[in-house]
Amino acid sequence: KDKDDFIKLLNTAIESELTNDFWEITVPNKLLVSSSTNNAIRNTFFASLIRKGANVLFSERKVGDLFDPALKKRKKDLEKHHIFPKNYLAKEFNLDRRQINQVANFTYLEFEDNIEISDSAPKDYFTDIKNRYYKNKETELKKMLADHCLPDNFYNMDFNDFLKERRKLMAKTVRSVFETL
After folding, report:
1. Which of 102, 3, 6, 113 is nearest to 60 (CA)?
2. Higher pLDDT residue, 34 or 167?
3. Does the predicted model carry a pTM greater than 0.90?
4. Three-class SS of residue 81?
5. Other residues' Cβ atoms within 10 Å of the Cβ of residue 8
6. By three-state DSSP, how is residue 115 classified?
7. What's the CA gap between 35 and 2, in Å, rounded?
């Protein structure tokens, strides 16, 4: 009937649908599927990074800046990146495309960083990046990893354990941003 009724109805729907099970089971399971741009949870996670003002992984630039259509950019400033690179997983572990392309294995990097990482093992590229850009910047690096829901030791983890842990962290980030709205 009016805006107060609408808000009341909306809050009732949120309370009944967005339960702990939704955040702890449904959302992480939705992150199991491919990284299709039609995946609402995937898009919500990246929107959460923008809302939080997070930097692009291993960059000083903001995620929001690289998605902003108003800012003139070169072609491909931002690229989707497999945290455990696709060819590395296919070669080392003989995993199929569906396993490799789960939402939890993706983030965004600047074009140059993505090219430099290429098909390197996570431990190799992370060690290189840490030594080159984050000496004496441990706090900054830790925050960036946390913003991108990467466990502190992601580069040493078993791939399936990494995916499981990152899905939980991604769901927590989406929830925390949602609850601040």
Report:
1. 113
2. 167
3. no
4. strand
5. 11
6. helix
7. 39
